Amino acid sequence: MAKRIFITGIWHETNTFAATQTGLEDFHAYQYAEGDDLFAAFADTNTEIGGAMNAAIELDLNLVPGLFAGAVPSGMIKAEAFKALLERTLELLADAGEIDGVLIHLHGAAVVEGVPEADAVFLANIRQKLNPGTPLVVTFDLHANLSDDLVAVADALVGYDTYPHNDMGARGGEAAQILHRMLWSTKRPAKILRKLPFAPPPQVQGTDAAPVAEIMAKMHDMETWGGIWSASIAWGFPYSDVAHLGVGVLVQGDDHAHVTRVADDLALTIWHQRGEFDAGLVDVEDAVRSAMSAPKGPIILVDVADNAGGGAPADGTTILAELLDQDATNAVVVIQDPDAVRNAKALGLDGMFSGNVGGKSDDLHGPPVPLVGSIIFQEHVRYQRRGDYMTGQQIDLGEVAGIQAGGVTVMLTEAQAMPFDADHLAAAGIAAELQQIIVVKSAIAWQAHFQEFAKGEIYVDTPGVCASNLTRFEYKNLDRAIYPIDEDGVWPPK
User: Fold this and answer.
1) pTM of the model
2) CA dist., res. 137 & res. 176, Å (int)
């Protein structure tokens, strides 16, 4: 008889420096499904649940759906929202009856009011409801801030191997394989977590470029060594001000001593190369000038500090203001500004827009910018992702207005547009390949699609809650020196 596997999860990358809070409505607005709707939402998607579903068919596992709740990376999760999601998950688990195993899909950088290790608390509450010995396997994001408590509660954990993330389906399948292995034996892997006093910004965590590419290749080679079940590197999310911030190396296998040697070797490799993680930022004025003078486009101007996928408001105006000042042509900027969208809608298509846009969520990402131009697009935008990141995900940007201000096209949206692909631009009638300049509010994730046709990229030194210069932030909860926030981090610990 097929084993019954409860599958559930909660996903949030919490930027504790962001001014906004994340409520239950934000989870429902982005990704929320429970019961059979969970399977309908994630079937044939490149997600952990989609991958686990495919593997379950091959492994003859009977998946029993709980819920999955994901919110756009943003500020601190409200306590009542987390409580509601946890209680509903436990209700669904209780209703599921006898369970042989559990698959849980987390981020690993969720922070709740009063709960700095929210992922570990979510996991621990589920563990308490299970019969002793029930295997529990977890997936986590490459940007997770792993903690000892999180690792201790799970029987095994599997992290993403890619950034931009395009292996979520594969990791969900791997987690199901490991769970299946446990179900048919009494064996559980030894787990060794090494936390480094090192917090590289996401901009330099790309797995296709040095130095991360070589480090990941070494890790994958180690996974082929005898007795190793799996290895993961969580490169961390530095915009969560928590005590367990930093890179985590997790190795799992048969023999504790062997696993320890592998984990220590990999951790020491990373530590010795910490100085190679250079952000390489360019001043805003120079960046725009270089992009305008490039012989061919598109040139991608990367607004790292206003990363829509990292908790920033996506309404930063620093690059937009410079594009207008330098009379840029064939340039596109996407700004979240519900008020400006409503003003444009009142004027109607082909009307003349005149008003301030962006810079309204806080005072960290540039002031509102006066914008005058014709309204060239006005619709409610919904679409399904076609790229290889979150393939098949349904996106609703709400009402969208396109403003043509000289040579600059400003796409104003009600909801944040995370540039994992160019589908949002296409939905607003903008051909990305034909632009000279495209501003992406991202760190690395934009590369999954735009790098296929981009003729160049410039990482811009902009202000904001996702700034790559981590010395801009005041960390209050760290209990040790962490590089590059501090220069005097120590590894191995004395």
Assistant:
1) 0.86
2) 8
